[in-house]
Description:
Layout: H1 2-11, H2 13-32, H3 47-58, H4 66-82, H5 93-105, H6 108-129, H7 136-218, H8 223-248, H9 269-278, E1 282-288, H10 296-316, E2 321-329, E3 332-339, H11 354-364, E4 368-373, E5 379-386, H12 393-396
Parallel strand pairs: 1-2
Antiparallel strand pairs: 2-3, 3-5, 4-5
Amino acid sequence: xxSSLERYAELHPRTVxxxxxxxxxxCVLFGASIGTDSSSPPPDTWVPxxxxxxGCLAVLWCRRCPRGILALTTxxxxxxxxxxxxxxxxxxxxxxxxxxxxxxLTDHRTSRVHGWTVTGVLAATGVATNPSWDLFLLRTVxxxxxxxxxxxxxxxxxLRRAYLESVQARAAHAERTREEEARLRVAEExxxxxxxxxxxxxxxxxxxxxxxxxxxxxxxxxxxQAQKILAELAGTTSSALLELxxxxxxxxxxxxxxxxxxxxxxxxxxxxxxxxRSAGLDVSVVTEGDPRPLLPGxxxxxxxxxxxALTNVTxxxxxxxxxxxxxxxxxxxxxxxxxxxxxxxxxxxxxxxGLMGMRERAHSVGGDLQAGPRPEGGFQVTxxxxxxxxxxxxEEFPL
Length: 399
């Protein structure tokens, strides 16, 4: 019921103000007509009517100037009490309305100070006008109770309004936060897709370029070997297309009937090594420790890091040999990819996004990665990946 009245007051403020003024005017006139033997105002006077009109009309401006209207209504009430009118709540209705708006629109300290001040002034006026003990409690305690009640109600209204505003502010902040989080997730997904595409395209194109160059070099002198390399080149491009199809497939609609290939892992490492060997790169694989099953994310990360490292060897390495070492120990998998370029000076770290992508992949599963030239020549990439999701390679598995 109260919420319905509040909504109506918000939608029709002028109508509510007019009804309030009429009700206050009726209360003042009724309060002025009440009297006792010890409280006898002068008969046949026009002063109460004028003060009632002034005080009630002044309430219309309480929202704009609550302190000034409170002072005006308090002055009108003081005149009525000085004329020995009975200090009833109906006679003090304009003052009570002014105190309500003051408490609803200002802070707690201001409403408290003004409430006690007005109460003291009106109680002192009533006692000074009629110092008898007949209505002493009515002129003091009664006035205090009637005037402090609207202060309490107005303060409650102010606190409720502040609470609703804070709830709306939190809701708006939560909405903005959800939108920012959604944008962040979209950006992360775009980065993941870009990283996948980079790994797939860079590796297969580098291998295909090396195969095409080798076939062109052997076309005249060794045509049989050139034809064999060209046949392997077709397989390399077919693998690239299949991986591109699987990667781009995450952008498809959920109702697409075409099945997607599973994400590659270390079980496809022999195919990767075979493609590198067909491009003229002699790759050896060494496994230390007991191989253990990997989490899907760690398995994909391990495969992509080895793939990108061999791609860098194919594009930037001076030698024709590389070693991939897989070490399983203490709950981690250490992958070391080395370009065995012992005859040449140390190879500078290749630029581009390859190393950055490998490092981001390692960090995404809680691992770490180091890459740099070897003192004896060549280049080496070393990464430590946890076999368990709660492991911390930075603390437990130093490289």
